[in-house]
Amino acid sequence: LYILISGASSANANANILLRFNSVSTGTKYAQYGLQLFGASTYSASGVFYVTNTTRNDIILTNIGSSATSTISAGISVNGCNTTGVKMLDFQTGIATSGTSFELNNGKGFFNDTGTISSVSIISDSGNLDAGTVFIYGAA
Is the CB of residue 18 less than 8 Å from the CB of residue 59? Predict the structure, then answer.
């Protein structure tokens, strides 16, 4: 399964953009690890963080930042969708906030549930998504 997000934004500033499968939001079903790079200007990185979230109700793709007009792009690859075991995922996200600053995320994670993946949700943890397109590609 490959999920492509283009131009997504939240109605509220400082909202996390989240990924969920099968509407499951039970703690410990998700885990994610990765790197986060952010900068105060378009071409200057001002910080790098190693991110570890091991007991999650979802996968955090990125934070919308201080401007609700910011938009994200993301690519998410999911393996094992048709199995009852752990589904592994890789993701890359990017966001330009206020037109000049940025945040880039590169991570790995998993969804540990006995069901096969039958639905994908991209949601905001504060308010609704107010823009964007989600494309989903898969094999039968």
Answer: yes
Two structure tokens written together for 87: 């589904």
Structural contact between residues 22 and 29, judged by C-beta atoms closer than 8 angstroms: no
Rounded to whole angstroms, the Cα distance separating 130 from 83 reads 33
d(CA 109, CA 91): 8
* Region label for 65, one of left (φ > 0), alpha (ψ between -120 and 50) or beta (otherwise): left
Tell me the whole-structure pTM to 2 decimals: 0.86
Q: Is residue 2 over pLDDT 70?
A: yes
Cα–Cα distances in angstroms (integers) from residue 45 to residues 48, 49, 61, 105, 130, in the given order = 8, 11, 19, 13, 28
